[in-house]
Amino acid sequence: MESVTSARVPASSRQQAMDWSLVLASQGIDCAIDFSPELGWGLVVSAENAEPALDAIRRFHRENRRWPWRREIRPALTFDWGSVAWVLLMAAFMWLSTAHPIVRDRGMMDARAVSEGEWWRLFTATFLHGDLGHLAMNAALGAILLGLVMGSYGTGVGLLVASMAGVLGNVATWLAYADHYSLGASGVVTGCIGLIGMAGIAGHPERRWRNVAATLCAALMLFVLLGLNPESDTLAHFGGFVGGLLVGSCFLRARLPIQGARANLLAGFAYGLLASLAWMLALSQRMAG
């Protein structure tokens, strides 16, 4: 009598199978994404891991049942309307920096000041914009791209990793120029392109080089279309794009449980704490001066 060595967990879509595979990986349960015309999408696990896998998936759904702002556009593509909150935050800082110019002066990217220890400018500069046109461009692109990043990585995690990519864009300009001033969330926006590219690679579990190359080329073409403008800070844009690729690669390679409610709450808290600390240091520095 032949023993059963594997079990199949059916999924309703490719996106659901991908999400579940990350959940199981975070619990140390090996699985493979499977598709057949007869059965559709699913996960294949060893027979001994069938019950632990189902239990982990049930816990995942209990944690995520109250996320109504996430919508699956099509299989393997989810949009998170939480990006609208980011747009409103950028608009609030535009109003604040216009009403109180000291906010812009103390928060904008200044390479010389960063070299003298004002590291927070690498982060605070991503909240500021030069004028309404600058804000409108980043808000329009950011609402879409960040929404896709949040859909792929989770609401809180997506916001945090996109911000990290924007910071890396400012790090690039700081390393390249001894005396440089800039502001804007463009590095965050182009970082989202890199993050989406890495999420696309994760969507091909077989990791064939053709799929990887095609995804990276598509991401690069999108960056060239949206991120290269002779009148803008091209190096910060490129640094953000590469930063998105690097940060996305680290998170996906680590196979962290990025879609869970706990991980996203912690990531959102970390983002709020970092923003509060950076702006507190920026404004208290002025008061001390």
How would you portray this structure in words?
- It is built from twelve helices and seven strands.
- It has two domains: 6-65, Hypothetical protein rpa1041 (Alpha-Beta Plaits); 78-288, Rhomboid-like fold (Up-down Bundle).
- The N and C termini lie far apart (82 Å).
- The chain is mainly alpha-helical and 289 residues long.
- Strand 2 (32-36) and strand 3 (40-46) form a beta hairpin.
Output the CATH topology of the largest domain. Rhomboid-like fold
**Termini Cα gap:** 82 Å
Number of domains: 2
Strand content: 5-15%
Kindly provide the radius of gyration, computed on alpha-carbon positions and rounded to a whole number of angstroms: 21 Å
Structural class category: mainly alpha
Overall pLDDT: 83
Order of helices and strands: EHEEHEEHHEHHHHEHHHH
Number of helices: 12
Percent of residues in helices comes to 55-70%
Give the overall shape, derived from the CA principal axes: elongated
Sheet of most strands: 3 strands, antiparallel
Number of strands: 7
